[in-house]
Specification:
The structure is a single chain. With 334 residues, the protein is α/β, with parallel strands linked by helices. Helices cover 40% and strands 18% of the residues. The protein folds into 2 domains: 205 residues, inorganic pyrophosphatase (n-terminal core) (Alpha-Beta Complex); 118 residues, Roll (Diaminopimelate Epimerase, Chain A, domain 1). The chain has 13 helices and 12 strands. A 6-stranded parallel beta sheet has the order 3-2-1-4-5-6, with helices on both faces. Helix 2 links the parallel strand 1 and strand 2. The protein binds guanosine-5'-monophosphate and manganese (II) ion. The site of guanosine-5'-monophosphate has 11 residues, from strand 11 and strand 12.
Length: 334
């Protein structure tokens, strides 16, 4: 991607002029928000800055091996410390989300903070009023790939080391489902190859992320596919749902349902898949599509959500039964 030279210069100057820099990841963190934050954090620390990484909630088990993941401060665990680091920062980075409300409890300190606010993200429709400088690239596979292109275009390129490259690689690998979607782009593979040349063991990294299922997760998957999958062939749609008590039967660990919705989308002839699940007393929905159907629009229109063209999420204030009834009505009218 070509950035305006002035935009990169402004970023470099803001970083040079700032001392306290806080990098914010989104709620229910995935490998892209964590990988990009760890990579940028490592570069900024190497540049001599006082860097704090914060995240609304716990990082799932399958990412606990990532370099320096323990340095991320979790709001659910150390709320005051996280709030202070946001309010007192000179410079804030929003990593892999497009608006402050995507960070749950961090929204309030984000709105209070007087810091200069930079967006690095690939979601549609960023909150332009909030950010002072935006790197918003919905066409990019991942925020990690976007970050790599930004760093490559800047004077910080020489500060990328093996660990930073690995973190960005993991973000790209997971946001593309191991190069299975958001991947019709030769540049993505060129960027990935450049990162691999820092010394990444691709196979071992893949195993760390994907071949590290808990037994509970596989059993949850079996249960869900066997008992909870509803297919509506005439609408090319399939959905699954999991209540809190069902999730609790399988331990309800952070990240338990990660990737689950893709199984419904993998059915031949299905191009719209939905997972409805209960999370922290709320009903959340995950939407995925193949081809020309915008789940970003669908999520915005019906479920107070958004995301990407083919992957989005939303929420419902109704209970599980009512949400599924409403969902069925909406699907019938598509
Ligand atoms: P997931 O289904 O994996 O939770 O989310 C898919 C995509 O949709 C992610 O890129 C995520 O940022 C976005 N997303 C998920 N939930 C919401 C939501 O409630 N609101 C908005 N605006 N985006 C969401
Ligand atoms: Mn992402």
């Amino acid at each position: 991607m070509q950035f305006q030279i002035e935009t990169i210069q402004e970023l470099e100057k803001k970083i040079s002029d700032s001392q306290k820099i806080t990098l914010i990841s989104h709620s229910s963190p995935d490998a892209d928000t964590i990988g990009a934050a760890l990579a940028l954090g490592s570069v900024l620390k190497a540049f001599g800055k006082e860097v704090t990484l914060v995240c609304p909630n716990e990082i799932p088990d399958f990412l606990q091996w990532m370099p320096n993941v323990d340095s991320i401060i979790i709001h659910d665990v150390q709320g005051h410390k996280v709030n202070q680091s946001i309010v007192n920062a000179d410079l804030l980075f929003a990593i892999d989300f497009n608006a402050p409300h995507r960070t749950g409890n961090l929204e309030k300190p984000m709105l209070e903070s007087q810091a200069f606010k930079v967006l690095i993200d690939h979601h549609l429709m960023p909150d332009e009023d909030y950010f002072d400088l935006m790197f918003s690239a919905p066409q990019k596979s991942s925020t990690s790939e976007l970050l790599y292109e930004i760093l490559k275009s800047s004077s910080f390129k020489s500060l990328i080391d093996y660990e930073a490259a690995l973190c960005m690689f993991v973000g790209i690998m997971t946001d593309t489902g191991s190069f299975a979607y958001s991947c019709n782009d030769a540049t993505l593979f060129e960027n990935t190859a450049e990162l691999i040349r820092y010394g990444i063991d691709v196979k071992a990294t893949h195993d760390l992320v994907y071949n590290s299922n808990s037994i509970e997760r596989l059993q949850m998957l079996g249960y869900c596919l066997n008992q909870k999958l509803v297919v509506i062939p005439e609408k090319r749609t399939a959905y699954m749902s999991l209540t809190k008590s069902e999730l609790e039967q399988f331990g309800n660990a952070e990240g338990l349902t990660e990737g689950l919705v893709n199984y419904a989308l993998s059915i031949k002839g299905i191009n719209f898949a939905i997972l409805v699940y209960e999370k922290s007393e709320r009903i959340k929905l995950s939407f995925r599509s193949k081809g020309n159907f915008s789940v970003n629009d669908f999520a915005r229109k019906y479920f107070e959500g958004g995301g990407h063209f083919n992957a989005a999420g939303g929420k419902s204030a109704l209970n599980m039964e009512q949400t599924i009834q409403r969902l069925n009505e909406i699907i019938q009218n598509l």
